[in-house]
Amino acid sequence: MQSSxxxxxxxxxxxxxRDKVIRTLCYGSQLVGGILSGKSPQSSLGKSLxxxxxxxxxxxxxxxxxxxxxxxxxxxxxxxxxxxxDALVRWMSVLSNVADQxxxxxxxxxxxxxxxLIKTKSDRWWxxxxxxxxxxxxxxxxxxxxxxxxxxxxxxxxxxSGSAESREEAFSQKAALKRQIRAEVFSILSSSADLxxxxxxxxxxxxxxxxxxxxxxxxxxxxxxxxxxxQMSSADQGAS
Length: 240
What we know:
Layout (H helix, E strand, L loop, with lengths): L1 H12 L1 H25 L4 H20 L4 H11 L8 H28 L8 H35 L6 H37 L13 H26 L1
Helix pairs in contact: 1-2, 2-3, 2-8, 4-5, 5-6, 6-7, 7-8
């Protein structure tokens, strides 16, 4: 019990970990609040949870005001992806980084307009930032699909080996490749759930924009958030 509490505190002490926890609480509150409000529109608990979710969302938006430089450092470090062996993976990653980099200033302008810090309409900036987020998610899904195909080809090459030692090494490599494939599958599921919400927040008339009830938005977001927490936990365990 104590180790679990210590692990949770460690997660909260990092910006990345705290954001994932806030995100999970945000969408989880929207999921439960949406269900309660759907069953009983007069439910005070349902309304409170939806308001709590909205405040956590505002909190995350405000915290993202400081993410531009870290994103720029990541994009600069990746550059044109010279270390990537596959050209498709490389260029999809580069385009995804560009979309992510442009997302932040667009969201900042929308936030500043809503806060009446600048005189401009926030609607178009929210749409633009959501569109960039959606584009990044689509590129991420395609990149993961491509990565899975590459990893499967590598796994097939490890299927047969001559000596006992090489067979043992091949088995170890195949197990590692399976873990990587599983991670890519989880990434596809997470990005797909987020993409459903991104489309929902686009202007009416675009696919299913505006058609999700609050509980469904919460369900998609909670699914993505829990996968993110699971991936972060797996990465931390692998690093240790």
